[in-house]
Design goal:
Order of helices and strands: HEEHH
Helix content: 40-55%
Structural class: alpha+beta
Number of domains: 1
Radius of gyration: 11 Å
Strand order of the largest sheet: 1-2
Shape: globular
Length: 64
């Protein structure tokens, strides 16, 4: 299973209340921009470059 599939499976099983929790903070922006599960889902679902970057970082951190 690739990173995208793992993320989508985890996201699908998250309680709705947790989807508004911050999972990742964009480090390359000033001020730093927190991203929730919902925001990351949009990026991953649309296969954006930012979504791919976030998936890499979440995999490195062991979140997915």
């Amino acid at each position: 299973m690739d990173k995208r599939e793992r993320f989508l499976r985890i996201y699908a099983n998250l309680p709705m209340a947790l989807r508004n929790q911050v999972i990742y903070v964009l480090q390359n922006k000033e001020p730093k921009e927190p991203m929730t599960w919902n925001a990351v889902f949009v990026e991953v679902h649309n296969n954006t470059a930012l979504g791919k970057l976030i998936l890499e970082k979440l995999d490195e951190l062991g979140f997915i």
